[in-house]
Amino acid sequence: MTKKLNIAFIWHFHQPSYQENSNGDFLMPWVRLHATKDYLDMLIRLEDFKNIKLNFDISPVLIDSIEKYINGAKDIHLKLLLCDTKDLDRDDKLFILENFFDVNYSNMLLSRPHYAHLNDIRVHCDSKTSLIDSFSEQDYADIMANFTLCWIDKRFRYRYEGLDYLLDKEKDFTLEDRQKIYEIQLQIIKDILPTYKKYQDEGRIEISTNPYYHPILPLLINMHENNYPYCENLPETLEGGIKDAKEQVARALDKFEKLFGKRPRGLWLSEQCVSKKTLNLLSYFNIDWTVLDEGILSNSIGREFARDFEGNLEDPFALCVNYALKKDKNKTNLIFADSFFANLVGFGYGSYDSEVAANDLYEKIKTIQNKLQNSPKENHLLTIAMDGENCWESYQNDGEEFLNTLYRLIEQDDTLSTTLVSDFIDKSTPEELNKIASGSWINRNFELWIGEPTKNVAWRYLNQTKQDFEKMSKELLSKAKTNIDKAKANKAIYEAREEIFVAEGSDWFWWYGEPNESGSDIIFDYLFRERLRNVYRIFYAQIPDYLNIPLISMVGKPIRQAIGHISPVIDGTQDEMFDEWENAGYIFLPDSPTFSKMKAVRGIYYGCDSENLYFKFEINQQTVSKSNHFLKNQIHIYLRSAIQASLSPVRIISRTNNIYPTLKNSFSHEVMFSFNKKDLLPPILSVSMPGGLWKMVLMKHDEYAYKEVIELKISYKDLGLEENTPVEFCVVGATNEVINEVYPQDVLLTLNNEILQ
């Protein structure tokens, strides 16, 4: 008889606060859009599978945002959607063109042909002025309507009156149509939380929660507990961090109980970040279970999980049981998720045929089950825990076929059973774990949130604001003499503390610095600093000047502009009798201890004379590949001039859906070269053709050299340009035609001979 395998699907939902303050508009629309595409859809799928049980984790800050939309809050996108297009000014129209096409190209945009046609017009416009004037008022209405409809799950087509008609309509949307789209969105949003409570009360799902504003608890509690070998310059541990960690957990539990009628038994640690003191905190709050990544278990038991060439575990036993720390008061059960499965669903299967992908996952589950048949334990748990909202854009029909096929295969298999986590731990004796290693689900450490220079500065800003908050609070209370004054003081202190709690969220530090890029880093930077500024506003105190300066990474922006002509000798050497690059612009790329291993270039010099453009690249030799496979180290220089008639988009591949603002431009020329530790291949020049295409042309006047540095001369003659023509450019580092780094990330740089002379 085949031993049954329990499967715990845990779908995690989280979005940060996109408001400038607790009463302001949302600056980004992602809560509203995901609410109509993922949160309810992922749940009501159970209507078709009566024997499937699921676990959902919902962050309290996300619940707050959902409730605010229900109570009438708006975001910038929504306000534009609901306005009369006659009232749009040119800034509004440019915002629409730059932000209302932020959808998956294959699965969302191309599913609506007229919307795709409008995008084609947008992509092939040469300038912002002609771009805005290329669309009619009706076009702007259609763009906004189609964008919003792309984000509504098609499962709702017949569930909400009028949606079927709107989904079939592709153009000529009226203001009334757009208002109806919002009414349907709002009704979907209103249905989310009551439906989750209903399914919870019926025993079909279990809901867990997070620390309130999704902070990284180990970093709040003690930044130095975990011995960061890669960074010697960590910020000081936060003032009152342990107290804040307790408050963030306590408030999350209270919020959950108020909403769902009982305390949650499970708590998903933000980003699955854990430490010993963090587990002690969970035990203090009587949390029954938390889920961690398999890498944490590997580090805790000192053994890696071997996998075969298909990714299957050689021995899945250790990963398919629950644990508790040995000889410790901490009785919180620890379950460990199979990261291979999470990565397959999150990043691997989206580009595959959905039914094929679902069958492949099912077969991998069965492989694990077969290997557990000789286990001495009766009950085993395979945990698949992952983000449940951001991956589905890459799937056909928002994951409809994939999830339906997977759930059906499991439901029809009598030897497999989906389970609620609490149900499993209630019937299973935990294995003993001698220790718990600190770390997260990414690289088993905290590098994505601390250690990189810009992230560290953000932590220092937060800590300084917390210290100032304590001083201002004491001063305010000392001045309060009457009960009314004391009540006002306590109200101000509560509101200011709330701003600090928001700023402690993981998302700000995730997007700051390297290596992540959201496409909206400027907004994330603004929101983080604005929340800190709000603390001072609440106390009517002067805001520190540094909080008014964007903290967003300056990587890729020149720390020195070109100030005059240069005509250097192209010999590839760094040691020169006099500095021939003295008047050049310089882009310094700081080697953060965490991410320097990912960079091929440490610095870029650029300049020109009347006949040529010049570039010098300082190479990070520790990163550059030794092999003769030159495509591992590529540099693409993209150029354009105002007089060029034909422009084409960049043709190298992005790793994510997020596109650096610089690369949203089109260009007239591309110069690409590849190199390894000691050799440089000849640069290749391509010029733009009509229709967004490129053709290769011969470079007759170029010079290049590589010894200590890479130096390159590009002739105006080869570019087909007159001498002294102003040129805009950016530089892209790539591996096998896939983008690694972009300099600069937000605006093009300009070489203008008239200014330099």
Summarize the model shown.
The protein has 757 residues and is α/β, with parallel strands linked by helices.
Distance between the termini: 86 Å
Helical element count?
24
Strand content: 15-25%
The named CATH superfamily of the largest domain: Glycoside hydrolase 38, N terminal domain
Question: What's the structural domain tally?
Answer: 4
Can you put this structure into words, describing what you see?
The protein is an alpha/beta fold and 757 residues long. It folds into 4 domains: 5-14 and 203-433, Glycoside hydrolase 38, N terminal domain (7-stranded beta/alpha barrel, Alpha-Beta Barrel); 72-194, no CATH class; 453-548, no CATH class; 585-756, Immunoglobulin-like, CATH 2.60.40. Helix content is 37%, strand content 16%. The protein has 24 helices and 23 strands. The strands form 6 sheets. Strands 13, 16, 17, 18, 21, 22 and 23 form a 7-stranded antiparallel beta sheet that branches. A hairpin with a 3-residue loop joins strand 11 (601-608) and strand 12. Helix 8 (137-150) packs parallel to helix 10, helix 16 (354-371) packs parallel to helix 17 and helix 20 (483-503) packs antiparallel against helix 22 (521-538). The longest helix is centred in the N-terminal third of the chain and has 27 residues, at 175-201. It is globular and about 80 Å long. The chain starts with a strand and ends with a helix. Mean pLDDT is 88; it is low at 227-231 and 591-597.
